[in-house]
Amino acid sequence: MLDYPALEALAEIIRRGSFEAAAHALSITPSAISQRIRNLEDRSGTVLIDRGPPVQGTKAGLRLAAHLDQVRLLERGLIQTIPDALPVIRLAINADSLATWAMPPLTAAPGLLDVVIDDQDHALDWLRNAHVTAALTSDSRPVSGCDSIPLGRMRYRATASPEFIARYFPNGPDSRSLGRAPALSFNSKDGLQDRWARRIAGRRIALPLHRIASSQAFAEATRLGLGWGMNPEVMIAADLDSGQLIDLAPDQPLDIPLYWQIARISAPALMPLTRAIKKAARTALLP
Amino acid sequence: MLDYPALEALAEIIRRGSFEAAAHALSITPSAISQRIRNLEDRSGTVLIDRGPPVQGTKAGLRLAAHLDQVRLLERGLIQTIPDALPVIRLAINADSLATWAMPPLTAAPGLLDVVIDDQDHALDWLRNAHVTAALTSDSRPVSGCDSIPLGRMRYRATASPEFIARYFPNGPDSRSLGRAPALSFNSKDGLQDRWARRIAGRRIALPLHRIASSQAFAEATRLGLGWGMNPEVMIAADLDSGQLIDLAPDQPLDIPLYWQIARISAPALMPLTRAIKKAARTALLP
């Protein structure tokens, strides 16, 4: 059996980013908390906390902390817990969903939320490594031990400011103009711009890329004329209406299906959250 | 002398997240790009790319890629470069600044932007490790080889929804109510809520914490009544006016000074960006 008080210490350190803050939260001394971690590391034969700075969990440490969350979530089915032992629900949510429709249903989570942001193509890595309990993602591939629930499609539109279009796309987007016009991209895992450009040009284009890892700043950068980019239609509908943004090819939207992938062991405890997500998706997404 | 074509291959792989995409962007074969990386790794005696998935740079690989960016930036002072050799300007910007005032001045950057998000207390780690060229941060400590320019103060207000206040703070915030009311926090490095609670309670409080690593989702979660949190005043001014959010203690704002820290070697090339940042800060921040 694992040493659960030590796991609690480990999880608090990772969550609060310091040994001292964790000791305070657990009402034990800093030396007691160091001792627990050392014992846990000795017994598991591996380093669980990177002492930094910054202090953070190693892969093994994060896996153990995620295990503790799952145990707490299971316990919730058994007993009425006290408020300060609320389980932590760790979720990976793609940034564009969080920026548009996903925040309200997340409030149905039965515990304290820990929302990590990931673009829609790679949230499964988080699930596979058991760092999160559920993920809102565009990846439909089954993850072992997880259920996958299709939610609908999010529509993206290739957009730019009128000035940007006059400068880079006077004759519309094609392989030559796409190779010269700066594109916006969320991060190195964001393949939407590449996919769309390939579809338009009929071949792969090496896009000059800006990278801005925030959905709202990405849309703002599009309006400011920094580059063209794939924006969620629901996010920039008003800009298209007002003419502040122009759709580069109104007949060529990109529809990205989204899935709610959830660790099967936690599915019963997270049922209220799953219901809220499905309901919100029905109004926010295309069928 | 370093092998710069190999460094270019390394930087493209890190930026695009795959060997294949990098080979395409550089118009060389995948086997040629693999060969370049292997040579570079043999000569430096260390692994530069974590083959994943996901494919990403190791610490040493990121440092080499950042070096290449600096060399390109220096070259820009010498010669007129061709459009597809635009230098990449890698910046760490704290999320709340990007969400409120910092995106427009960033468009003055002389090259392709690569904006990484960090909360305001730890962007210096990025600078120190030479993964970024400049950082917008609350940390005034000098970083060796960097200039630090004070920009002004961003005002934060402890806010919550009226329903949340009725439930958790009927008699206002104190050490007892703060220990029970869920707080919002950006990530494990976000100490604003802890600092404010400590000031109000006169001692440290172990806050029950939700974590949501997006400024806009953080504000939305406050409005939805998920928790209380420190929101930038400029971001939630309209909510305070309309009564959708209430200031927990109007006479207790938290003012966070912000600094523009910039690698001295890149300062001349980035002068237009620095000027734009300083100008925007004068209207957006308190003196």
TrEMBL record, chains A, B:
The entry's keywords: DNA-binding, Transcription, Transcription regulation
Native organism: Paracoccus onubensis
The UniProt record lists the keyword Transcription regulation: yes
NCBIfam families according to UniProt: argP, PRK03635.1, PRK13348.1
Protein known as: LysR family transcriptional regulator ArgP
InterPro entries reported in the protein's UniProt record: ArgP, LTTR, LysR_HTH_N, LysR_subst-bd, WH-like_DNA-bd_sf, WH_DNA-bd_sf
Keyword hit for Glycoprotein: no
Family: Belongs to the LysR transcriptional regulatory family.
Segments forming domain HTH lysR-type: 2-58
One Pfam family cited in the UniProt record for this chain: LysR_substrate
GO molecular function, one term: DNA-binding transcription factor activity
